[in-house]
Amino acid sequence: MSEFFSDCLNGLVPYVPGEQPRDKKYIKLNTNESPFAPSPKVIEAIDKGQVSDLRLYSDPTADMLVGAIADYYSVDKDNVVTSNGSDEILAFIFRAFCGKSKGIVFPNVTYGFYKVFAQLFNIDYREIPLKKDFSIDVSDYENISDNVIIANPNAQTGVFLSVENVENLIKQNPERIVVVDEAYVDFGGQTVIPLVKKYKNLIVVQTFSKSRSLAGARVGFCVCDKALADDIKTVKFSFNPYNLNRLSIVAATEAIKDKDYFVKTTSQIIENREFTEKELDKLGFETVSSTANFLLTKPKGISAKELYLALKQKGVLVRYFDNSLISDYVRITVGSREQMEILIQKTKEVLTGGQNA
């Protein structure tokens, strides 16, 4: 830290992304990326002369993409705000609606960026413990006046909170905002975007990184009441009006239009997740029931950290969190069927001391 670093950021602990080692080729099951290429229509659209237009600024309103998202979810364009990945829209939301008079609360096991943004913007925050089964108890939020953010399905655990429970959370206090981060909702959950028409204090955040296979394009968005959307846009246009590049706008537009490819790839992920969970069960692992594109599982006969390190040595990356609440678990991204079969095989080799099982 330099002598010039702002005093107000002295305690800031930055978000730690999943490792991206370059020392050898790995099967990457640690950052919840899609194993599938983007829709062929995405690639075709980008190839049609889009690169030559990179000399021009992108559309700051991303109108083409906003329209496609609005059509897909049957909302008005005024309800949609796009961003450079969902992390950016989350940052806009924290900045727009939290401050000295309004803090924010979130589960004690969830997406790590929530705490980082709270610290970055000097926002009071509180972490609400999950139940023993890693589920959210909505009643724990009953008497809280601060804004609430949850990931649904929850990051790290994959546990899904029903639409009915989310609606109860929203209705508890109309004077606070409830943000529902649906990064993983397309793998078996149910979106609460339709509730935006009913409640003015709901913001639903989604990303194209997971189910649309566009992690490298960095495209996110939120859907909410027009008044909230206008507030978020005020922050956006005060920070970076051209936050989405031309290629990403085209790519995301084509991705959300190609419903057949979306259904095909997300269905395959769900099938591969179910296969992997059954195979882990055979090994005696305790796996949290997930509706995301990952599994949180507790190994048997070896510590989670030892399994993570051993698999890394064998060319398979999974995620280990040095967090006492989930330090007995590893998180495994659901990849292709071939990748999951290799994962299981390598895990068996680790458990049997390196011998082929």
Description:
- This protein folds into two domains: 7-36 and 260-351, Aspartate Aminotransferase, domain 1 (Alpha-Beta Complex); 40-258, Type I PLP-dependent aspartate aminotransferase-like (Major domain) (Aspartate Aminotransferase, domain 2, 3-Layer(aba) Sandwich).
- Helices cover 35% and strands 14% of the residues.
- The chain contains ten helices and 13 strands.
- It has helices at 40-47, 63-73, 85-97, 113-120, 163-171, 226-239, 246-257, 259-282, 304-313, 337-351, and strands at 27-28, 80-83, 104-107, 125-128, 147-151, 178-181, 202-207, 220-224, 286-287, 294-298, 316-317, 319-320, 330-333.
- α3 (85-97) crosses α4 and α8 runs parallel beside α10 (337-351).
What's the structural blueprint in terms of helices and strands?
Elements: E1 27-28, H1 40-47, H2 63-73, E2 80-83, H3 85-97, E3 104-107, H4 113-120, E4 125-128, E5 147-151, H5 163-171, E6 178-181, E7 202-207, E8 220-224, H6 226-239, H7 246-257, H8 259-282, E9 286-287, E10 294-298, H9 304-313, E11 316-317, E12 319-320, E13 330-333, H10 337-351
Parallel strand pairs: 1-11, 3-4, 3-5, 5-6, 6-7
Antiparallel strand pairs: 2-8, 7-8, 9-10, 10-13, 12-13
Helix pairs in contact: 1-7, 2-7, 3-4, 3-6, 8-10
